[in-house]
Amino acid sequence: MTSLSSESSPAHANSLSNPDASSATGRGGPGPDLSDIRPDDWVERWLPRSWGPYARLCRLDRPVGTWLTLLPCLAALVQAADGMPSLLRLVIFSLGALLMRGIGCCFNDIFDRDIDKKVERTRFRPLTSGQLTLKNALWFVLAQLLVCALLLLALNEYSRWLAVALMPIVIVYPLCKRFTYWPQVVLGIGFNWGMLMAWSDTQNTVPLAAVAMWLGAVLWQVGYDSIYAYVDVRDDKQLGLHSTALRFADKGKAWISGFYIATMALWVWAGVSMQMAWPYYVVMAAIAGHFIWQMRVFNVARPDRNFMLFRANMAVGVMLLVAALAGTLL
Q: Do 327 and 277 form a contact (C-beta atoms < 8 A)?
């Protein structure tokens, strides 16, 4: 229910900060619409009616998570190529990020289909609402995996094995919130895996500096996804699920600040190791400023504000890509 696989609406966040609004919205009761399915989005307007449930299942209607997966991967491609990567690699890794995020969301909805029926925000999703059957969803996952397999043919053997190693992580992530308070760590490892593959395919190796960039991205994701987890904290408590938000409780600002500080340390160290040009560090300073702003705005008691902060991290992803370009091309 939490994390990039969800991307809920501010209406849901408002319900958590306003218990009266939440309690007033039972099944069919009065109150705000808490569903994360928006009836007036581009999927509803432009896609054939039969395609809509599949687009929503893989979250094409909510692309923030895809961008947060893709941008660090593109930054790694730039650093691995020491400049502009080939157009073929850009296309392959962009499609790979889109597909793997979609596959992850499909697995999430498949495993959570019984839980999602009990949550106002998620009960209208394709599987829980009956728009798609479990069989439909499984066939759709298989189709996406087949496309991914075709993309892997263009990569080297090292990268193919890394891709195989990723699949258990993608599958196990939706189950993690049932037995650990740290599902965000598993999510961060999996959704930034493309950074390692970018290096393995470009250089046929993954140097220590590349691992540091990846670890920094993992900790960054643990930070911003913990911010997001506070949006769902009430539902998670009621359903007996776990998240870093429940683990951190009212100490969330201290924990997330620590993750962001570690992220900056790893990214700066990696930049020095890769001999990035000085503009890289200027952009790193801007990212640090963004993190400071996030922590000033973050409030465990304001889930609506925290949803905004989650989305704002897309700017960090853009800056990370700019830093990689500036550090290699200037």
A: yes
